[in-house]
Amino acid sequence: MNKGTIHRTSIVMLFGTLFVLLATTPFATDKGPLKVVYDVAVNTPEAVDNVLARASHLSNLTGADPLEGSIVLVLRGNEVSFFTDDNYAAYKAIVDRAKSLSTGGIIMIRMSELALKVRGIDTNRFSRVGANRR
Closest Cα to residue 76, out of 35, 48, 49, 104? Predict the structure, then answer.
């Protein structure tokens, strides 16, 4: 390897390291409001709980402002059946957690009407949940 190649490699490594350092500093972060939409399609209560935990963590981590920011969870998979009034007793912990997270206005939970129709679920069977259908 000649001195020119070593020199170019050193410069690339230096600027690469500098870029990584700048990307992790406050200078690189956007101070705008947090607006995120998650398309959710899971099959188990544990997976729903994990999604809710991540949304809650993201909300706490960023200090999301309910007047400017939002985290929207759009439920499109088999998890929509967990939130029906008929299944409330079986999935009470998840439904109550979802409702408490959505109370503050930062985290919003929506359900796909198509996902409900495909599963034969009446769109009026969600009185306890507080989730909106879209």
Answer: 48
Element holding 111 (H helix, E strand)? strand 107-111
For the stretch 109-114, contacts whose Cβ atoms lie closer than 8 Å and that sit 24 or more positions apart, written own/partner, are 109/72, 109/73, 109/75, 110/72, 110/73, 110/74, 110/75, 110/134, 111/74, 111/75, 111/80, 111/83, 112/74, 112/75, 112/76, 112/80, 114/76
Find the helix or strand (DSSP H, E) in which 110 lies: strand 107-111
| Burial tier of 98 (Cβ tally within 10 Å: 0-12, 13-18, 19+) | buried
* 119 token code pair: 């599963």
pLDDT above 70 as % of the chain: 64
Beta strand extents in 18-81 (DSSP E only): 35-40, 70-75
The pair of three-digit structure tokens given for residue 120, joined into one six-digit string: 């034969």
Closest CA to 100 of 65, 78, 81, 128: 128
pTM for this entry: 0.67
3-state secondary structure of 71: strand
